[in-house]
């Protein structure tokens, strides 16, 4: 199995990078900027500023280069610099990686935007589970707290399925779990249960009744054809 380790700049130290290189584990780490790194992005930042002024939107230019610290690294390593200029000013960022530039899938832009930045998206998913009480570990035993975590994980899977399948064409297609809970699941409604059906009667003034109905229809279609 091939392993690619992603982490922020707190992990870009010689001990960890050296271990990864010695054990055939690739890595992509954030790298804290300094004067030498910023000097390597002077020209790309000028170009990014020019593009930002022309378009009126943030612009990015990437530079791929080799770098070695003065005394803390044992070798030269590949650096990708993101020269970004926003309406608020320059925003340079750097990553260090063991992945080689010879592979098309790992050019500078793809390496930063598609591989490294996906780490933040994964953290967002972890954060969403906290909105489903994954941090409730107040029981007296480890087994009970583990059960709480399982319930939270199952709840996340259900809400994520609702988002991906039932809400994919609505305003909530990219909404956070907390937003879906607040605006779709925590609604005042009259619930009537029969032998074969559960009826939800939502107030006519409910602002998201259309999304609720469409979610039901999409889920019904998806699971009836599965």
List keywords for this structure.
six-stranded mixed β-sheet; 2 domains; elongated; 8 strands; two-stranded antiparallel ribbon
* Spatial extent as radius of gyration: 24 Å
Question: If you average the pLDDT, what whole number results?
Answer: 91
- Number of E strands: 8
N-to-C SSE string, H for helix and E for strand: EHEHHEEEEHHHHEEH
End-to-end CA span: 32 Å
Helix content: 40-55%
Q: Main β-sheet, in a few words?
A: 6 strands, mixed
Structural shape? elongated
Q: Would you tell me the structural class of the helices and strands? A: alpha+beta
Strand share of the residues?
15-25%
* Sequence stretches where pLDDT stays below 50 over 5 or more residues: none
Q: How many distinct domains? A: 2
Explain the overall architecture.
With 226 residues, the protein is α+β, with helices and mostly antiparallel strands. It has two domains: 4-116, no CATH class; 124-224, no CATH class. Helices cover 44% and strands 20% of the residues. It has helices at residues 14-22, 35-39, 42-55, 108-116, 118-130, 142-166, 177-185, 209-224, and strands at 4-7, 26-30, 59-67, 77-86, 89-90, 93-97, 189-193, 198-202. Strands 1, 2, 3, 4, 5 and 6 form a six-stranded mixed β-sheet that branches. Strands 7-8 form a two-stranded antiparallel sheet. It is elongated.
Brief account:
This protein has helices spanning 14-22, 35-39, 42-55, 108-116, 118-130, 142-166, 177-185, 209-224, and strands at residues 4-7, 26-30, 59-67, 77-86, 89-90, 93-97, 189-193, 198-202. It has 226 residues and is of the alpha+beta class.
